[in-house]
Write a structure and sequence with these properties.
- There is one protein chain.
- With 589 residues, the chain is mostly beta strands.
- Helix content is 12%, strand content 36%.
- The strands form ten sheets. Strands 12, 19, 22, 23, 24, 25, 26 and 27 form an eight-stranded mixed sheet that branches.
- A hairpin with a 2-residue loop joins β6 and β7.
- It is flat.
Amino acid sequence: MRYLWLPLALGTMTVTMAPAQGGELFLAYPPANHQTEAEQIFLIGSAPAGIPVTLNGNPLQRSRTGNFAPVVPLRLGENVFTFKAGAREIQRVVIRKPAGPVLPPPLGFAPDSLWPNQNIARLPRERICFRAVAPQGAQVWAEAGTTEIPLQPQGPSLRLPPNSALLTGQNQPQVSAARTYSACQSFETIGNLGQPRFRLQVGGQIRRETAPGLIQILDPDQLEVVEIIANPGVARTGPSTDHSRLTPLPQGTRAAVNGAEGDWLRLDYGGWINRKEIMPRTGQAPEPAAIRSVGYRRLADRSEIRFPLASPVPISIEQSAEQLTLILHNVSAQTDTIRLDNDPVIDRFVWLPSTSSQARYSFVMKTPQQWGYTVRYEGPTLVLSLRHPPRLTSEKLPLQGASILLDPGHGGAESGALGPTGYPEKDINLRIAQKLAPLLEARGAKVYLTRATDTEVSLAERVRQIDALEPTLALSLHYNALPDGGDPNQAQGISAFWFQPQAEALARYLEADLTRRLNRPSDGVYWNNLALTRPHSAPAVLLELGFMINPEEFEWITDPQAQDKLVAALAESLTVWLRKTAPASPERR
């Protein structure tokens, strides 16, 4: 067997595609009755090159093999598109929905615009903001408990598009025609203020509605204490998955809850976590945990720094190219003794006492490349583990001593992007991984695949494999597409994505080297908070090796000879980067 694959307890599922065949017209995107807020849509498909194709009676420009991807404007409501090729006809209906809040009626609030729209909890004297979308020129009030708050009209409402809008160059704020009214108020009385009541007045007419969410003012002396049961807990900057991720919280972390919003709890150090990832603990909020001596243990492939604490506390980690800083929250710093021997990866240690409730421990590395770290609690002791670099032990087998995990994206029911013929991304991802694996193994590397067949593997399981195997490098292989509003004909090239600073150098090198070796366009290097770039137990990079939806580039993607050149270039790029970055072992010096 040329590579190692972890078999999973998951069923194999396949998606039956209907690719264009001889004499047939095929439309890969959009699906029937597609709905979007974009001002334009691309329509991707294929037909035999010798048969003319029209869209709503107009001839289409196509690639050499018959692929097409016209971009057409959308009007609000229903848009009908009819494709014809010979005797074959395909019709698609695309519905463009209005972007942003729906305009309110002349006397009323816009649907679902009253906030708070879910139960919230805050501390006394903490500002709570009330919002509503109402007609321009109206007067609006909110009432919470016995307090009435006049809401003020704001300037033009700005709506931020999703993060994916960066890929189409349409990520600037958009002005909404809706008018937002808002004001903030603090409360001192502890207890349940009930559901806020809103009043709207236009001329002499009045409309009243009640917001869906209850407001609770917490007792600071009776805060609930919770423990993280997820491994790890996903901490965020705010109460939804739209908010950015913070450093994951190790299982066993304990903290007090000083705010809530829907299913999200705000922990006393500032991070938010979903209720499903915690369990309540008895007792009141603990005092700051004492942290005194810091221990050290050197293992064969990693260095462990051990922080004995009075109780498990929330943590944050800041990483740069040459430094990693561990921040302990809710602690009383009493550290006077630290052991740190002459270490393979740590050059020096920086510890500056503070009178705040944080303790910062910084480790300056010997080289600008870090190879992964893990954190865990052993009882109340926090263990920070810093991995040593691989030792490449052979000149004849340049990757001997390294292990590489290849992650063919998607699989099973998850087809990924579709090419103009209906060819799914999941198949080309797997093909490239299967071609690349033996090339890397022939150079001495141990190679793992997250899937070796058309199997559905969850993102969580792929991450679990990385953390369990701790490879030298983890590489997720994908091919790209665009959200609605983009232009497939202008989108092409190779891009690389990273999240942890320890993976940035690898991402930049692979993107630059592959485009040079293959003479392909560059689509850039991105910092991106993706499931397969987040692992920190090893440098993890996600590659987008071309655009499935570009009619011309799709021909390159599916060309077997081009695939062979791609995997050869990728194997060489990985080899060169590892050989110049990993230290030489005594055997090959």
